[in-house]
Amino acid sequence: FDHIIFVIYRTMKFIFSTAVLSVLACSAVADDELTFAMPGVTDPSAVLYSNDMEMGAYNLSSCSGAPSCGTAMATYNGVSAKSNGKDQCTGSACGGSISTGLAYQCVELAQRYMHEKHGIAPIWHDNANMMCGSYPKGISKTSNPQPGDLWVRTSGTYGHVAVITAVHSDTVDVIEQNSSPSGRNTYTKSSAGCFLTAGGAPGPSGSCPNKGYYCGNDGLGKDANNLYYCSGSGASPSLHTDCGFTCTIMPHGQDDKCMSGTCSKVSTGNYCGDDKISGDAHTLYRCESSKPKGAKYCANGCHTASKGSNDYCN
Fold it and tell me: Where does the secretion signal sit in this chain (predicted)?
């Protein structure tokens, strides 16, 4: 009987040891696979962000080769894609908040390009994956992308956007921020959630797009805090109202209008009206050096972000 007990003990010990070794081996393989899948990337946040994006012709390890913050990497039509420095491929912005967005996230380049080349209001501060569903006046979707249009990817936590520089049968060449360290890339057309174009939008000193009331920064290239009247397409805008605080760009088909509020209690950034602005809760305001720099109405509501982050439209 003692012999039988001893045999059972030895057998159970062997089975247990084998099971433990198997578990440890699986753990080791899993760790190796995790490390192998992300070569050269040491910042966990960079890994998470990059995995959400289609990296085009570049792989994940390319993020680590970005030049210092704000360095011009590539230029198209006089507008440069700038490096996000140590924050390349993450949700952080090495240059903080500036008038055209978070420097130098991908949306900042798209917004700066459309503002400088077409006079589009620089208050498009949403994540890239929201851009196909929410865009300023003067912007529209297109199924026939051209150089100067935007390629927008809507999948992933943040999405991605880039300025198209050349169009091929199945792909587009782009300049971009917060992705490839060269500022250039190539993406498939099929990977786009949409393509956005400014079409015939007027330039910074352009004439009226249509009849109605427009904020100065809504395609007119004028003071963002004033409301102008346009008698028709191609007409010269005339000052209608000095808004006192600022003017709010409304959704397509609606006249822009003046809004009240204050920027005296906040630092530079984007704020919902009920976030220290004392304004309309459904409006996103831009404040710079305690002064208003335009606003836009959020059709789906405005989200108050955590301290230190910009608020944004839902």
Answer: 1-30
Q: How far apart are CA 256 and CA 56, in angstroms?
A: 39
Residues 75 and 159 in one domain: yes
Whether residue 287 contacts residue 279, with contact meaning beta carbons closer than 8 Å, is answered with no
Query: Residue 1 to residues 5, 8, 10, 120, 309: CA-CA distances in angstroms?
Result: 6, 11, 14, 90, 73
pLDDT tens per residue, range 120-137 = 877 666 788 888 887 887
Average model confidence (pLDDT) across the chain: 76
Residues 161 and 256 in one domain: no
Q: Is 206 within 8 Å of 114 (Cβ atoms)?
A: no
Q: What is the pLDDT of residues 196-230, one digit of tens each?
A: 998 644 444 457 877 899 888 777 778 889 999 99
| Domain match, 66 and 150 both | yes
pTM over 0.70: no
Please say which residue of 135, 164, 197 terminates a domain.
197
What is the span of the domain harbouring residue 252? 212-313
Q: Which residue has the tokens 């912007």?
A: 139
What distance in Å separates the CA atoms of residue 239 and residue 91, rounded to the nearest whole number? 40
Question: Whole-angstrom Cα distance, residue 107 to residue 97?
Answer: 12
Does one domain contain both 56 and 184? yes
Q: Which of 269, 218, 211, 256 is nearest to 236 (CA)?
A: 211
C-alpha–C-alpha distance, residues 279 and 187, integer Å: 41
CATH number at residue 100: 3.90.1720.10
List all residues 6 or more positions away from 278 whose beta carbon is below 8 Å from its beta carbon.
Answer: 260, 261, 262
